[in-house]
């Protein structure tokens, strides 16, 4: 993320403004060094300018979930000598190391399809192929669809194809209906760009009561380079073990929205003699055993099992008597 010429490592960014549920990243003058668009050429291009203000429309949460912290990354593209703004959700796990070029979608990009969501599992099934680009992290709107419903992961089939299934964070049955999705996980700019050099210039941390309704200003507005974000996204970097017992329960689905993998360690007590197992379901992949043991004399069985949850994945753990629940996050 360090400029080779006159470009500075950290660039000035300004606090976003909000209006009618949308959020705008203001225009700020800057000088940036960009790599060559060709992998066969190592030259550096220095560009000075003020990328136009960039508005994230209302109802475009970019993969954020209601009342859950999220980090949006401020990106500047070199479109043939013109600086342009782009944005991405850190939780999408996109490579933003600035080592390559980047392809973006238009912020207005979305899709329409017919589908249904099953109760208890939250699994979305497409009845018809999507019109437009179906992306993970999309927020869905439709009859009976709760506010903040997000497409978390592809389970079966080809993304956007009829019959494909997806894990969502909604667990209320939705009959087959027309659903529309707004921009989700990915890199978005005012107009789609293909294979352009880019620089990461900042981050915005915020929690919105309703994802996609930008009513709360970011709690952190920070200039940052691509390599620092690569470290930020790495497992263990900046993470600490936290006691989550008071806010966790067996059989309940939770979501890793931290932008990096987390680890879980649980101490359990069967409370009765005999053998038992614990099961987990991560990202809607299906239930699997991840720990257990033999209980003697009805006493506490001290077992702490480690489980890694990928960025953006859902997770639900079931088993006997969950005494303590810790997460490295």
Q: How would you explain this protein's 3D organization?
A:
This protein is an all-beta fold. 2% of the residues lie in helices and 42% in strands. The chain is built from one helix and 26 strands. The chain has one helix at residues 226-232, and strands at residues 17-19, 22-25, 30-35, 44-49, 54-56, 70-79, 82-89, 105-106, 111-117, 123-126, 131-132, 140-142, 151-156, 165-168, 174-181, 187-189, 198-206, 220-223, 241-243, 254-255, 262-268, 274-282, 288-295, 304-309, 314-318, 322-328. Strands 9, 10, 11, 12, 13, 14 and 15 form a seven-stranded antiparallel sheet that branches. A hairpin with a 2-residue loop joins strand 1 and strand 2. It starts with 16 loop residues before the first strand and ends with a strand. The relative contact order is 0.18. Residues 1-7 have low confidence and may be disordered.
Structural key phrases:
globular; mainly beta; 329 residues; single chain; 26 strands; disordered N terminus; 7-stranded antiparallel beta sheet; 1 helix; 6-stranded mixed beta sheet
Compose a concise summary of this entry:
It is built from one helix and 26 strands. By secondary structure, the protein is mainly beta. Strands 9, 10, 11, 12, 13, 14 and 15 form a seven-stranded antiparallel beta sheet that branches. The protein has a six-stranded mixed beta sheet with strand order 8-16-7-6-17-18, with no helix packed on it. The chain has a four-stranded antiparallel beta sheet with strand order 19-26-21-24, with no helix packed on it.
């Amino acid at each position: 993320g360090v400029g080779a010429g006159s470009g500075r490592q950290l660039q000035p960014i300004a606090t976003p403004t909000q209006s009618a549920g949308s959020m705008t990243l203001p225009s700020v003058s800057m000088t940036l060094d960009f790599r060559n668009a060709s992998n066969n050429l190592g030259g550096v291009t220095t560009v000075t300018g003020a990328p136009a203000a960039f508005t994230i429309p209302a109802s475009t949460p970019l993969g954020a979930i209601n009342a859950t912290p999220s980090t949006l990354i401020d990106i500047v593209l070199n479109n043939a000598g013109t600086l342009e703004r782009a944005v991405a959700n850190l939780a999408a796990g996109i490579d933003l190391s600035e080592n390559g070029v980047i392809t973006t979608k238009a912020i207005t990009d979305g899709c329409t399809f017919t589908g249904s969501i099953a109760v208890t599992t939250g699994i979305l099934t497409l009845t018809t192929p999507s019109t437009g680009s179906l992306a993970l992290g999309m927020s869905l709107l439709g009859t009976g669809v709760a506010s903040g419903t997000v497409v978390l992961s592809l389970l079966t089939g080809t993304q956007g194809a009829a019959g494909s299934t997806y894990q969502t964070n909604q667990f209320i049955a939705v009959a087959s209906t027309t659903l529309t999705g707004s921009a989700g996980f990915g890199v978005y700019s005012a107009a789609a760009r293909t294979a352009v050099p880019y620089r990461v210039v900042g981050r915005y941390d915020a929690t919105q009561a309703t994802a996609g309704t930008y009513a709360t200003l970011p709690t952190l507005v920070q200039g940052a380079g691509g390599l620092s974000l690569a470290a930020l996204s790495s497992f263990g970097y900046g993470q600490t073990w936290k006691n989550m017992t008071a806010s966790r329960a067996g059989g309940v689905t939770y979501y890793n929205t931290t932008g990096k993998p987390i680890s879980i360690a649980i101490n359990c007590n069967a409370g009765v003699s005999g053998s038992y197992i614990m099961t987990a379901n991560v990202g809607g992949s299906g239930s699997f055993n991840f720990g257990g043991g033999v209980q003697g004399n009805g006493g506490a069985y001290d077992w702490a099992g480690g489980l890694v949850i990928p960025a953006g994945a859902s997770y639900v753990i079931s088993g006997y008597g969950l005494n303590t629940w810790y997460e490295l996050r």
